[in-house]
Write a structure and sequence with these properties.
four-stranded antiparallel β-sheet; alpha+beta
Length: about 160
């Protein structure tokens, strides 16, 4: 399977919106929008981030849009984030996409956050060189509760 990144197109947004509303993926991601079904808020969010300094990419698997990946935030505090359609979990796509994004954005350090029980995401981040630096807690909208979160860091 060929994994590639490209800039986000308007035509990707309905795919991302559908992916964001997968109930199982929402629970796994945990830290999600307050109301993922609010299309106006979703569109406003993407309008803001596409106008920002964030590096936003669509993730393609054999030419099909299967997710997104981004680096965002202020220099010295920038974070990575990614979302892969649940139908494609467990195939190495997130790892390949994150490696491609990290090659495109050489700035270090970079940070990441994941729910402490999201073993798949933690594994992807560790394979890409991120190391856990602390555990915190935060309110997870998708779970309606305070949960443990792992903060990870990638050095040069």
């Amino acid at each position: 399977m060929e994994i590639a990144l490209r800039p986000v197109h308007d035509s990707d947004l309905p795919v991302f919106f559908r992916q964001l509303n997968d109930p199982e993926a929402l629970v796994m991601a945990a830290f999600t929008p307050k109301d993922p079904q609010d299309r106006d808020a979703f569109d406003a969010h993407w309008e803001r981030i596409r106008a920002s300094t964030a590096v936003n990419r669509a993730v393609l698997a054999d030419g099909d849009v299967v997710g997104s990946a981004a680096v965002y935030g202020e220099p010295g505090e920038r974070e990575v984030t990614y979302w892969i359609d649940r139908a494609y979990w467990g195939r190495g796509i997130a790892t390949a996409a994150l490696r491609a994004l990290l090659a495109e954005v050489p700035e270090r350090p970079l940070f990441a956050r994941a729910a402490a029980d999201n073993a798949g995401s933690l594994r992807v981040l560790e394979k890409c060189g991120f190391r856990a630096t602390e555990r915190t807690s935060g309110f997870a909208q998708a779970r309606g509760a305070e949960i443990e979160e792992v903060v990870l860091r990638l050095e040069g």
